[in-house]
Amino acid sequence: MTETKPRYHHGDLPSTLLHSARVLLEQDGIAALKLRAITRHAGVSATAATPHFGNLSGVLSALAAIGFNELTAAMSNTTHKTMRDIGLAYIRFAIANPGLFTLMFRNDSIDRTTPDLQNASEKALSCLADLPSDTPPSSPLDKAAQMASAWAKVHGLAILAIDGQLQALTPQPLTPILLEKLLANTLSIK
Amino acid sequence: MTETKPRYHHGDLPSTLLHSARVLLEQDGIAALKLRAITRHAGVSATAATPHFGNLSGVLSALAAIGFNELTAAMSNTTHKTMRDIGLAYIRFAIANPGLFTLMFRNDSIDRTTPDLQNASEKALSCLADLPSDTPPSSPLDKAAQMASAWAKVHGLAILAIDGQLQALTPQPLTPILLEKLLANTLSIK
DNA sequence: GTGTGTATCTTTGCGGTGTAAAGATATGCG
DNA sequence: CGCATATCTTTACACCGCAAAGATACACAC
Question: Distance (Å, rounded) from C-alpha A66 to C-alpha A70?
């Protein structure tokens, strides 16, 4: 990024492409994630991504993996490893990075079998799975149900918040402060 | 559908196009929802949808509206108007119509301001909102939090189920019977 | 009935897309 | 220095959404 002199061999094209992709994503939404738009933004030819990522899905998968890593970091940075705090970190990440978060779960655009992506998403999931449950599970299925319950609620809330559909639930306009209160209240509901 | 004689004026092209779109959707996934593919499947020219739906977004929005109406019907057909039964109906619909359900919440492909779609989605949401809460809400925000909690959990579960990510939570392979048990258990968690 | 306006559908054309294949260029290593 | 190789560009092609113009058949006034 500091070196703008145009040379045939870019030097660090992969990260430059991912940067461009992310800028376009948060700027113009997920519909702007075209391969040609990304390479155009990066100042290279339309097929320059091929040697590094193979195809568009490869670029988006790499970007999604970055997203999962950042999500993991956000959840790991919480002081209290409680459902409430980790859930809030999860949802705050989604609200702060709506395009990226959407991409991370758009399975017809990314390739979940990519090793990097698979590792990154598993690590993020384990942050939620390792939460201490208030009532000890009576069976493996019950344990799975507890994890699914937490996962689903947090993930569902994040999606509703991004889509602006929580607005429909409140009489007043939903300011950021009110949204935070709503999230906290919702996560407190056992 | 009973009349296959090809005539210049199709007669019932809108519903035929929506039918084709739905077939392609459940057959080849949401990525197959191209305007040209839909019209090709319906046996008409590539731009035949224009007078009826305007553009691709119009077709997909109409299809999404159908989805919301069917979802509403599924939730209305439950005998017990409980969180558990209505939630199960919601999730079962999603599992039975994964492509359609995904489309219904893909806001960069559909146009939520379409009147039909807006009405249909509001009706579906009200089915969840009108659930009796076990503890009376202490404030409007608390009421919103209760609704968000139910909405989020059910919606999150549906998405996780569709994406096959509940598999990651269980040690054994997730048979349909086991999935039903897991869903019931998860929804019972208060 | 007949004529005409209009809605419906087709044809054509254009700029955009992803990506395969082949060519150009720089790098790195023997 | 020489050359294999990785990296990037150019070219080409099939596909896409959609605007515009043409063809067709319906509907309704007369």
Answer: 6
Tell me whether A178 touches chain B (CB under 8 Å).
Answer: yes
Q: How far is A100 from A149, CA to CA, in rounded Å? A: 24
CA distance A44 to A50: 12
Kindly report, residue by residue over A91-109, the tens digit of the pLDDT.
999 999 999 999 999 999 9
User: Which of A142, A160, A172 has its CB closest to that of B185?
Assistant: A142
For residue B149, list chain A residues with Cβ-Cβ distance below 8 A.
153, 186, 189
**CB-based burial of residue A26 (10 Å sphere; 0-12 exposed, 13-18 middle, 19+ buried)?**
middle
Nearest by CB: B155 against A144, A159, A178: A159
With an 8 Å Cβ cutoff, are B141 and A185 in contact?
yes
Whole-angstrom Cα Rg for chain B: 19
Which pLDDT band holds residue B129 (cuts at 50, 70, 90)?
Answer: confident
State how far the Cα of B110 lies from the Cα of B120, in Å rounded to an integer.
13
Average pLDDT over residues B107-125: 96
Q: How many residue pairs bridge chain A and chain B with CB atoms within 8 Å of each other?
A: 121
Strand nucleotide closest to residue B37 (CA to C1'): D16
Nucleotides of D under 7 A from a protein CB: 6-12, 15-21, 24-26
Q: pLDDT tens digits for A140-162? A: 888 888 889 998 999 999 999 99
Per-residue pLDDT tens over the stretch A50-90 = 999 999 999 999 999 999 999 999 999 999 999 899 999 99
